[in-house]
């Protein structure tokens, strides 16, 4: 009986500690965003409601794959249509993958960069990758991370692009002018499929 009580107490303590840690992380993120707003480094972006791939004859497109392993396959299926549509046109794709992507993929010999993602989902080399793409004038940047990743959003914020596509979060108004919805309990790329379906 004592062993059972000890196990229950351990689990409860773990839940409390984990919840406190998550609250601390959220507080830390909110403070970062507040400071960036106060210092003028980020500001609200006006939403773009007239997006259409048909308006872009030879676009330069940056696609950032998700760092969550379970979303990688779904995301690739979703963007395959736009890749197929533009592969024979005078278009330029840049793909940012990450070290969670273990299997090889055919990106039609497109230029790729790789984020070095830590076990805590921190990106160790975002500044190095930014140096490589900073002077590229992208027509579209697509962030396939469904959950908000501060480092990636700040990375995108520093890029020049007419359209910046990402998923709705408490902070997305500062980083994306086209925002997508999804069910957080069952995340998918249906809203992106619909958007890209305007081809």
Short description:
By secondary structure, the protein is α/β, with parallel strands linked by helices.
Can you tell me about this structure?
The structure is a single chain. The protein has 199 residues and is of the alpha/beta class. It folds into two domains: 1-41; 53-196, Glycogen Phosphorylase B (Rossmann fold). It contains five helices and six strands, in the order αβαββαβαββα. The chain has a six-stranded parallel sheet with strand order 3-2-1-4-5-6, with helices on one face. α2 (69-86) runs parallel beside α5 (190-196). The longest helix is centred in the first third of the chain and has 37 residues, at 2-38. The radius of gyration is 19 Å and the shape is globular.
């Amino acid at each position: 009986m004592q062993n059972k009580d000890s196990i229950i107490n351990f689990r409860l303590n773990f839940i409390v500690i984990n919840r406190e840690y998550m609250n601390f992380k959220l507080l830390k993120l909110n403070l970062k965003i507040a400071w960036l707003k106060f210092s003028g480094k980020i500001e609200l972006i006006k939403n773009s409601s007239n997006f259409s791939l048909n308006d872009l004859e030879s676009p330069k497109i940056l696609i950032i794959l998700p760092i969550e392993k379970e979303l990688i396959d779904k995301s690739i299926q979703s963007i395959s249509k736009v890749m197929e549509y533009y592969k024979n046109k005078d278009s330029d794709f840049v793909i940012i993958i990450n070290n969670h992507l273990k299997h090889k993929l055919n990106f039609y010999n497109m230029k790729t960069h790789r984020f070095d993602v830590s076990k805590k989902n921190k990106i160790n080399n975002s500044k190095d990758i930014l140096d490589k793409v900073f002077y590229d004038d992208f027509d579209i940047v697509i962030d396939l991370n469904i959950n908000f990743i501060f480092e990636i959003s700040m990375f995108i914020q520093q890029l020049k692009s007419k359209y910046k596509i990402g998923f709705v979060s408490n902070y997305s108004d500062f980083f994306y002018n086209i925002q997508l919805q999804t069910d957080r309990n069952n995340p998918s790329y249906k809203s992106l499929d619909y958007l890209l379906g305007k081809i």
